[in-house]
Design brief:
Length: about 200
Protein backbone atom coordinates (compact mmCIF):
# COMPACT_ATOMS: atom_id res chain seq x y z
CA UNK A 1 0.00 0.00 0.00
CA UNK A 2 2.86 2.41 0.79
CA UNK A 3 4.23 1.94 -2.73
CA UNK A 4 0.88 2.78 -4.30
CA UNK A 5 0.54 5.89 -2.08
CA UNK A 6 3.99 7.08 -3.20
CA UNK A 7 2.47 7.06 -6.70
CA UNK A 8 -0.70 8.82 -5.57
CA UNK A 9 -3.03 5.79 -5.58
CA UNK A 10 -5.73 6.24 -2.90
CA UNK A 11 -8.01 3.41 -4.02
CA UNK A 12 -9.54 1.49 -1.14
CA UNK A 13 -9.37 4.43 1.29
CA UNK A 14 -12.78 5.85 2.19
CA UNK A 15 -13.53 9.49 1.45
CA UNK A 16 -16.72 11.27 2.60
CA UNK A 17 -19.39 11.25 -0.13
CA UNK A 18 -20.39 14.57 -1.68
CA UNK A 19 -22.23 16.12 -4.60
CA UNK A 20 -20.92 19.04 -6.64
CA UNK A 21 -23.18 22.06 -6.29
CA UNK A 22 -21.23 24.49 -8.48
CA UNK A 23 -18.04 24.62 -10.53
CA UNK A 24 -16.00 27.76 -9.90
CA UNK A 25 -13.25 27.03 -12.43
CA UNK A 26 -9.47 26.56 -12.10
CA UNK A 27 -9.62 23.46 -9.81
CA UNK A 28 -12.37 25.04 -7.65
CA UNK A 29 -15.87 23.80 -6.85
CA UNK A 30 -18.59 23.86 -4.20
CA UNK A 31 -19.43 20.47 -2.67
CA UNK A 32 -22.29 19.38 -0.46
CA UNK A 33 -21.35 16.88 2.25
CA UNK A 34 -24.00 15.02 4.22
CA UNK A 35 -24.20 14.38 7.95
CA UNK A 36 -20.99 12.94 9.37
CA UNK A 37 -19.64 11.69 12.68
CA UNK A 38 -16.22 12.55 14.07
CA UNK A 39 -14.13 11.93 17.16
CA UNK A 40 -12.19 14.85 18.60
CA UNK A 41 -9.91 15.98 21.42
CA UNK A 42 -8.41 19.27 22.55
CA UNK A 43 -4.92 20.42 21.56
CA UNK A 44 -3.69 21.38 25.04
CA UNK A 45 -0.80 18.91 24.89
CA UNK A 46 2.37 19.67 22.97
CA UNK A 47 3.85 17.33 20.41
CA UNK A 48 1.86 14.45 18.96
CA UNK A 49 -0.23 13.34 21.94
CA UNK A 50 -3.56 14.86 20.78
CA UNK A 51 -3.17 13.01 17.48
CA UNK A 52 -2.21 9.81 19.29
CA UNK A 53 -5.27 10.00 21.58
CA UNK A 54 -7.45 9.83 18.48
CA UNK A 55 -5.27 7.22 16.80
CA UNK A 56 -5.56 5.11 19.96
CA UNK A 57 -9.35 5.46 19.72
CA UNK A 58 -9.60 4.08 16.17
CA UNK A 59 -7.16 1.25 16.97
CA UNK A 60 -9.14 -0.02 19.96
CA UNK A 61 -9.28 2.50 22.84
CA UNK A 62 -13.08 2.42 22.78
CA UNK A 63 -15.90 0.43 24.30
CA UNK A 64 -15.75 -2.95 22.62
CA UNK A 65 -12.08 -2.40 21.59
CA UNK A 66 -13.22 -2.11 17.98
CA UNK A 67 -10.81 -1.16 15.21
CA UNK A 68 -12.11 1.60 12.95
CA UNK A 69 -10.85 2.11 9.40
CA UNK A 70 -9.01 5.32 8.62
CA UNK A 71 -10.41 7.64 5.95
CA UNK A 72 -9.20 10.65 3.97
CA UNK A 73 -8.68 13.59 3.93
CA UNK A 74 -6.67 15.00 6.81
CA UNK A 75 -7.88 18.49 7.73
CA UNK A 76 -5.92 21.15 9.62
CA UNK A 77 -5.49 24.90 9.97
CA UNK A 78 -3.83 26.43 6.88
CA UNK A 79 -1.43 28.67 8.83
CA UNK A 80 -0.58 26.13 11.54
CA UNK A 81 2.92 24.75 11.91
CA UNK A 82 1.75 21.24 12.78
CA UNK A 83 2.06 18.32 10.40
CA UNK A 84 0.43 14.92 10.56
CA UNK A 85 2.60 12.10 9.24
CA UNK A 86 -0.05 9.65 8.09
CA UNK A 87 -3.27 9.66 6.11
CA UNK A 88 -6.14 9.92 8.59
CA UNK A 89 -9.59 11.48 8.97
CA UNK A 90 -8.40 14.49 10.93
CA UNK A 91 -9.56 18.07 11.37
CA UNK A 92 -7.46 20.51 13.36
CA UNK A 93 -8.77 24.02 13.96
CA UNK A 94 -10.09 26.52 16.53
CA UNK A 95 -13.52 27.04 18.05
CA UNK A 96 -14.61 30.40 19.36
CA UNK A 97 -13.79 30.65 23.06
CA UNK A 98 -12.66 27.02 23.31
CA UNK A 99 -9.15 26.94 21.84
CA UNK A 100 -7.94 24.41 19.30
CA UNK A 101 -9.06 20.85 18.75
CA UNK A 102 -8.14 17.99 16.45
CA UNK A 103 -10.75 15.79 14.78
CA UNK A 104 -10.88 12.44 12.99
CA UNK A 105 -13.80 11.78 10.64
CA UNK A 106 -15.31 8.31 11.05
CA UNK A 107 -16.37 6.02 8.20
CA UNK A 108 -19.87 6.58 6.80
CA UNK A 109 -21.22 3.38 8.40
CA UNK A 110 -21.22 5.05 11.83
CA UNK A 111 -23.81 7.33 13.39
CA UNK A 112 -23.47 9.20 16.68
CA UNK A 113 -25.43 6.33 18.27
CA UNK A 114 -23.54 3.39 16.73
CA UNK A 115 -19.96 4.70 16.92
CA UNK A 116 -18.10 3.05 19.83
CA UNK A 117 -17.72 5.32 22.85
CA UNK A 118 -14.16 6.45 23.67
CA UNK A 119 -12.57 5.08 26.83
CA UNK A 120 -10.35 8.18 27.22
CA UNK A 121 -12.41 10.97 28.88
CA UNK A 122 -10.51 13.57 26.82
CA UNK A 123 -11.84 12.07 23.58
CA UNK A 124 -15.44 12.70 22.50
CA UNK A 125 -17.78 11.90 19.62
CA UNK A 126 -19.44 14.75 17.70
CA UNK A 127 -22.23 14.80 15.10
CA UNK A 128 -21.53 17.09 12.15
CA UNK A 129 -24.47 18.45 10.12
CA UNK A 130 -24.64 18.56 6.33
CA UNK A 131 -22.52 21.35 4.90
CA UNK A 132 -21.61 23.15 1.67
CA UNK A 133 -17.85 23.60 1.21
CA UNK A 134 -15.89 25.49 -1.45
CA UNK A 135 -12.59 23.81 -2.30
CA UNK A 136 -9.51 24.56 -4.36
CA UNK A 137 -7.24 21.67 -5.25
CA UNK A 138 -3.44 21.94 -5.44
CA UNK A 139 -0.38 19.67 -5.30
CA UNK A 140 2.99 19.84 -3.54
CA UNK A 141 4.10 19.83 0.07
CA UNK A 142 1.86 21.52 2.61
CA UNK A 143 3.39 24.89 3.57
CA UNK A 144 2.02 28.20 4.93
CA UNK A 145 2.92 30.21 1.77
CA UNK A 146 1.28 27.66 -0.53
CA UNK A 147 -1.80 27.46 1.65
CA UNK A 148 -2.13 31.23 1.94
CA UNK A 149 -1.79 31.62 -1.83
CA UNK A 150 -4.50 29.06 -2.59
CA UNK A 151 -6.76 30.40 0.17
CA UNK A 152 -6.48 33.87 -1.34
CA UNK A 153 -7.34 32.56 -4.83
CA UNK A 154 -10.39 30.72 -3.52
CA UNK A 155 -11.54 33.67 -1.39
CA UNK A 156 -11.22 36.05 -4.35
CA UNK A 157 -13.22 33.67 -6.53
CA UNK A 158 -15.96 33.36 -3.92
CA UNK A 159 -16.27 37.16 -3.86
CA UNK A 160 -17.25 36.98 -7.55
CA UNK A 161 -19.63 34.05 -7.18
CA UNK A 162 -23.07 33.28 -5.76
CA UNK A 163 -21.47 31.93 -2.55
CA UNK A 164 -19.93 33.46 0.55
CA UNK A 165 -17.78 32.04 3.33
CA UNK A 166 -19.60 30.90 6.47
CA UNK A 167 -16.57 29.63 8.42
CA UNK A 168 -12.75 29.61 8.51
CA UNK A 169 -10.63 27.75 5.93
CA UNK A 170 -8.92 24.44 6.58
CA UNK A 171 -6.41 22.45 4.55
CA UNK A 172 -7.35 18.92 3.48
CA UNK A 173 -4.45 16.54 2.81
CA UNK A 174 -5.12 13.21 1.10
CA UNK A 175 -1.70 11.56 1.08
CA UNK A 176 0.96 10.47 3.61
CA UNK A 177 4.22 12.40 3.72
CA UNK A 178 6.11 9.90 1.55
CA UNK A 179 3.90 10.53 -1.52
CA UNK A 180 5.76 12.30 -4.34
CA UNK A 181 5.05 16.07 -4.17
CA UNK A 182 3.66 16.46 -7.70
CA UNK A 183 1.23 13.59 -7.10
CA UNK A 184 -0.06 14.86 -3.76
CA UNK A 185 -3.69 15.95 -3.53
CA UNK A 186 -4.29 18.90 -1.21
CA UNK A 187 -7.32 21.18 -0.95
CA UNK A 188 -8.18 24.45 0.71
CA UNK A 189 -11.73 24.06 2.03
CA UNK A 190 -14.00 26.92 3.14
CA UNK A 191 -17.55 26.39 4.48
CA UNK A 192 -19.96 28.44 2.36
CA UNK A 193 -23.60 29.41 2.01
CA UNK A 194 -25.53 30.96 -0.90
CA UNK A 195 -25.62 34.73 -1.10
CA UNK A 196 -29.14 35.90 -0.40
CA UNK A 197 -29.39 39.25 -2.16
CA UNK A 198 -28.32 40.94 -5.36
CA UNK A 199 -26.03 43.20 -3.34
CA UNK A 200 -24.22 40.14 -1.97
CA UNK A 201 -23.56 38.64 -5.38
CA UNK A 202 -20.53 39.79 -7.30
CA UNK A 203 -21.61 37.99 -10.43
CA UNK A 204 -19.43 36.09 -12.91
Amino acid sequence: MAGSQILGDRSGTEEPAYTVQATLGDAMEVRRYGDRVAVETDMSDSGGRPFMRLYDYITGANQGTRKIAMTIPVAMEPQGAETIAMTAPVEMTRRAGQGRFIRFMLPAEYTIDTAPKPTNPRVRLVALPAQDVAVRRFSGWRSPPLERRNTRVLTDRLARSDWRASGPPVTWVYDPIWTLPFLRRNEIAIPVEPKTSANDTGGD
